[in-house]
Amino acid sequence: MRNLFPAVLTVISLIVVAVSACGGRGPKAKGSVGGQAERSVPKQRQGAVSYTYKVKNVYPHDIDSYTQGLYWHDGYLWEGTGEYGNSKLRKVALESGEAEREIALENKYFGEGIALLGGRIYQLTWREGEAFVYDADTFKKTAAFKYGGEGWGLTTDGEKLYMSDGSSTIKVLDPENFSVKSTFEVRDGRLPVTMLNELEWIDGKIWANVYLTDEIVIIDPATGQLSGRVDLSGLLPRMERMPYMDVLNGIAYDSGTGRIFVTGKKWHKLFEIELVER
What we know:
Mean pLDDT: 87
CATH topology: Neuraminidase
Order of helices and strands: HEEEEEEEEEEEEEEEEEEEEEEEE
Strand content: over 45%
Radius of gyration: 29 Å
CATH superfamily: TolB, C-terminal domain
CATH architecture: 6 Propeller
Number of domains: 1
Number of strands: 24
Shape: globular
Structural class: mainly beta
Low-confidence stretches: 1-45
Largest sheet: 8 strands, mixed
CATH class: Mainly Beta
């Protein structure tokens, strides 16, 4: 057999020379570090933090109030209630649960979420497509706006209004004319989060009741992503539930003390809670 060793050595030498000429001293490849390709590491999505709760205080709540909207202001709870023929706007004393002032909506309206902004209280209606505006001091109706679709929850960041309609979409509204300035979809990762109901603005985030559940979700309004989920299962013990009572709904925040209040539709109790991370 012919000796191929010298020929093999020659070929290997030529390959080494060619490789050196092509890349040894040339510019680094795009995205490389130290001549080695940089590995692309995808950013990890920070999922929603899971919370349970601790009850700090319990207060009375009017069992006739089908709670649709709730907020804290000036030492009182302000509540918007629903049901045809029973919808109201109420200013409620915390310790007694009694209304110090209230007005009723016409029987043709089903009241929904409420929000206070600039000395005015805004109140949605469910399917009637109308929002009412009241003077916060006198409860005198000062304006009314039309809007498309259903009205569920309402809150404010101090400048704009945020409205839910039962879907995964939150509308950002101009408080001067109720026009839609923008919208965003609420998601947990890639999954839309629907049935968003009563809303509350807490420390730059939107808290929302998820209708028909014992859960509150915490939403980053800048991204629409969930930053937290609050499981309030067992808040109102099963043995205390009466046939006329409905689901969890109503979130209020006392920014001065950090207190968080929650209740439900026709519940006889309102709870001050503290979040506990799982």
